[in-house]
Design a protein that fits this description.
single chain, 223 residues, Rossmann fold, 16% strand, globular, AB_hydrolase_1, AB hydrolase-1 domain-containing protein, transmembrane, AB_hydrolase_fold
C-alpha cells in the first residue's frame, strides 16, 4: 500500500487524519486543513488512499481491511487529535475505533452511513447485482474472515452511541447516495448527545468543499 511520506517522518505529533473515500479526492478534503492554524499549529496531517483506491495497491477493499488500516494509522502516527471522515471513511472510522479502541480526541463525520450491511446492499443496488448474488457475496466475505465477523454486527449507529468522545455529524438533507435518515439514526442511538449540522442542497460530495461546513468543522476541531 502506498502512503504519502512527505513530512510525516519529521512530524512530532499527528493532529488530523483525513480519510480518502469513494468519490472524494484528497484535494477536496485538504481544504479542511487550511483554516486550522491558530490552535492546531504544529500538528501534522496524514492522508491516505483506502486499499484498492487510486494510489494504493490492490484492486479490492472491504470494511475489515479499511478498519484495520485506520487502526494501523492511529497506532503508527498517534495519539491522534482528530479524524475527519466522509462517507465510507466516516463509517469505517466509527467501526475501527469501536473494534480496535485506539485513542483519538474527537471526530468529524460527514455523510456517513449508520449500518454496514446497508452500504453493501446499497452498493449492490447501484450495480444492479441480484439479491442472491449479494447474499452470496456477504457469505463469502464472512467465510474469508473465518466466521469472526458477521455483516449483521456492523451496526454503526449503535457503535457511535457508545462512544464517549466529542463527535460532530454533518449531513445534507438532499444526499442521494447516503440519505439523511442515517444521520437521524446516529442521533437516535446517541440520545441526542451528538450534534448534527445539516445542510440543504449540497448533496453527497459538495458538502466537503462548502466554506460554511469547513468553518464549522474547523471550529469543532479547535474546541
Amino acid at each position: 500500500m502506498s502512503l504519502p511520506s512527505t513530512g510525516i517522518q519529521q512530524a512530532e505529533r499527528v493532529g488530523i487524519v483525513r480519510l480518502r473515500v469513494w468519490l472524494v479526492h484528497i484535494a477536496s478534503l485538504g481544504v479542511f486543513v487550511l483554516p486550522v492554524t491558530p490552535q492546531l499549529l504544529g500538528f501534522a496531517v496524514v492522508a491516505f488512499d483506502a486499499p484498492g483506491h487510486d494510489d494504493s495497491d490492490g484492486k479490492q477493499a472491504d470494511m475489515i481491511a479499511y478498519t484495520r488500516l485506520i487502526a494501523w494509522m492511529a497506532e503508527r502516527f498517534g495519539p491522534l487529535h482528530a479524524i475527519i471522515g466522509h462517507a465510507f471513511g466516516a463509517g469505517n472510522t466509527i467501526c475501527s475505533r469501536r473494534v480496535h479502541g485506539f485513542p483519538v480526541a474527537r471526530m468529524a463525520l460527514l455523510g456517513g452511513f449508520s449500518d454496514g450491511e446497508w452500504i453493501i446492499d446499497r452498493f449492490a443496488g447501484l450495480l444492479h447485482i441480484p439479491a442472491a448474488a449479494t447474499r452470496q457475496m456477504k457469505s463469502i466475505h464472512e467465510a474469508r474472515h473465518h466466521g469472526k465477523i458477521r455483516w449483521s454486527d456492523f451496526k454503526l449507529a449503535r457503535m457511535l452511541g457508545e462512544a464517549s468522545i466529542p463527535i460532530l455529524l454533518v449531513h445534507d438533507r438532499k444526499d442521494m447516495e447516503i440519505p439523511d435518515v442515517h444521520a437521524e439514526a446516529f442521533q437516535h442511538e446517541s440520545a441526542g448527545r451528538t450534534p448534527l449540522l445539516t445542510t440543504e442542497g449540497l448533496g453527497h460530495c459538495k458538502i466537503v468543499r462548502n466554506p460554511d461546513v469547513i468553518a464549522r468543522v474547523c471550529d469543532f476541531l479547535e474546541a
